[in-house]
Specification:
CATH class of the largest domain: Mainly Beta
CATH architecture of the largest domain: Sandwich
Radius of gyration: 21 Å
Number of domains: 2
CATH topology of the largest domain: Immunoglobulin-like
Structural class: alpha+beta
Shape: globular
Oligomer: single chain
Number of helices: 8
């Protein structure tokens, strides 16, 4: 099989990450800062090569040949994205963009050396884990319902993202760790009161002292945020825990820009959860 160009491989890596979840050509144009006709031309070339296929609404999926071609590069892409976000502090979208360029432009030996170096450093750092705030570490083990709001950064004004999660969240406290479980839900969006569109959360990251981390997604679609990422403090509303997040979402076929927000957990309003932990 004839090798793709570097730019075609970048597009294929992007389409692999967003496989079948809309936007397609529009997001490629935005990500690579080119015109839509240019992005369309490259996607057409990939389609003719049998690497991708387009759905009725323009969504792009990789074919078996497309996956076979690009799948070997995905582990390196994931590792380099993590490194750029954690060590260099790049935002998730910029880390992904730069990692794609590195994977397709550098020699495989160089990419392997970089990924192995980061894996070693990550292992060495594993013993330097962040500590939970005393407010969380002193809680009795169990499960708690916790009410929260999603606010605009450095503000108590609600973000649109506040509608994107079911309330309340669940705080799982174990002897060795705690984490917050959030359940995303579709947002109904009505621009200019004309028609309804549905917003869908695609990915979420939370901020730690070591950089951005992607929130772990469970099989049921829920997202976990570790207690070590939550900063607790006394406010006018009582004891709260806050975490800085970034979210990527789409509304219909429109790609929304990544946005930042603060999740505020109201820790004075914890309620014991009667459900068993196995249901999380």
């Amino acid at each position: 099989m004839k090798k793709l160009t570097s730019r075609q491989e970048e597009y294929l890596l992007l389409f692999a990450d967003r496989d079948g979840r809309g936007k397609g050509v529009s997001e490629a144009a935005e990500q690579f800062q080119v015109s839509k006709p240019t992005a369309f031309s490259i996607s057409e070339a990939l389609e003719k090569r049998g690497m991708i296929e387009k759905g009725n609404c323009g969504e792009i999926r990789l074919t078996e040949d497309g996956w076979r071609y690009i799948e070997p590069k995905l582990p390196s892409l994931s590792t380099l994205t993590e490194w750029l976000g954690s060590d260099l502090g790049l935002t998730p979208v910029l880390a992904e963009q730069e990692a794609r360029r590195m994977v397709v432009s550098l020699l495989p030996e160089t990419v392997n050396a970089m990924t192995e170096s980061w894996k070693r450093r990550r292992t060495e750092r594993s013993g330097e884990a962040e500590q939970e705030d005393a407010v969380l570490s002193e809680l009795d083990p169990g499960m708690y319902r916790v009410f929260f709001q999603v606010c605009k950064p450095d503000s108590r004004e609600l973000s649109m993202g506040d509608l994107g999660f079911r309330k309340p969240a669940i705080l799982v406290k174990r002897a060795e760790e705690s984490f917050f479980v959030l359940c995303p839900q579709n947002i109904k969006y009505r621009p200019q009161k004309r028609f309804h569109l549905r917003g869908i959360l695609e990915k979420m990251w939370y901020r730690t002292s070591g950089g951005w981390r992607e929130a772990a997604a469970q099989k049921d679609g829920s997202l976990n945020i570790p207690g070590t990422a939550v900063r607790c403090g006394q406010t006018e509303e009582g004891m709260t825990g806050t975490v800085h997040i970034r979210a990527r979402a789409s509304v219909g076929m429109l790609g929304m820009p990544e946005s930042e927000a603060m999740i505020v957990f109201f820790l004075d309003r914890l309620e014991p959860e009667k459900e068993t932990e196995e249901k999380i």
